[in-house]
Amino acid sequence: MATPIPQRGAHFIRTARAVGKYARQSVHLQLRWNQVTSWLATYSVNMEERGYLAMNIERVELQRLHMPFKASFEASFGRMAKRDLVLVSVYSGDGHVGYGESTSMPYPLYNEETTETVWYMLEKFLIPKLLTADISAPEEVAELFAPIRRNNMAKAALEGAVWDLYCKQKGISLAAGLGGSKQKIDVGVSIGIEPTVDLLLKKVEGFINEGYKKIKVKVKPGFDVEPMRAIRKTFGPDVPLMADANSAYTLDHIDTLKELDEFNLIMIEQPLAHDDIIDHAKLQKELKTPICLDESIHTVEDARKAIELGSCGIINIKIGRVGGLTESKRIHDLCQKHNIPVWCGGMFETGVGRAHNIAITSLPNFTIPGDTSASNRYWVEDIVEPEVVLVEPGILAVPSEAGIGYALKPESVKKFLVHEQSYSKQSLAHVE
Prior knowledge:
alpha/beta; Enolase-like, domain 1; seven-stranded parallel beta sheet; four-stranded antiparallel beta sheet; 15 helices; globular; disordered N terminus
């Protein structure tokens, strides 16, 4: 992947050309101008070969989709029957299109964002910033958006589309663009809070038979110790099992959480408050089971502080939660330096988001199977082709094709479409 530089390269070319029109007005400067144009031609070729010229982004399209789940899914913060998402398409002048998607929910229950706020932030702030900038590499998008506080899922949706576009322009896979080297990745599955333990056991059995490499079970006070005990009793000690609490506990529940130690879990994910790293450090000292932080980690700085405090032994990297692929990679690199394993969490993505998850998971420190299951885990029909499928039990292939490696199915997008809007440099002045 080309190493990004500041935007001065493209800016310098534009400035030199502007100066040139004045140089051409003077006969005695004509020779000097001929030298400048010759140099510019050579400089432009060199910059293009090194990946430093602007990506020539011309248009961004937003499409809001409502996609029904095959079956509703319950976590500690509620039950969901459909995905309400924003699909982002970024078009360049050379005919390429990059795709990203938002991972927000309709209500601010996982974090502060919603589908409505994502659309608003994209339309009013992020898209105008992108279309009026000269981006030569996707890492620059994170810098461009840095002055805007939080709204990470909105940022990630647009930045992910730019990453896909960039890799298509360069003719490389998204995984390769990020620096990944794996050709296959192990994946697990997430199971919601079921009405009964018996129903939970039936689902666990099915996913074990399908070969998933990790079984994640959502828990909450009153549905925690007994379900884990039943799983261990039924399927034995070797099933790779973890619990996800989605911030449902406090330190008042420490005795219950300590009971989970007997089940040899891979981890317990985000047991305490969504914005906490202090109490998690206290809790980790009392538990044998590693704590994994999810909602508490939004930036590489959050990760650094949590590691230094001893708040966790594992970190879950969700691209949307941390603001994009660039920040995801920074967190990965920090955790690798400190021997903290990471894994990629899922947010009920379509095939577009799943493709981004697969690509980031190709990095070496993603050593724990993530939540990126096959398309048919949640969808009767996905919006990409081919759909995301297991190539072996519990294993997904990392695409080698340019970009995300999946094509959008326009007829499927149209089927789930609720609203769409296109934005260009020319149209920005007309967006209220």
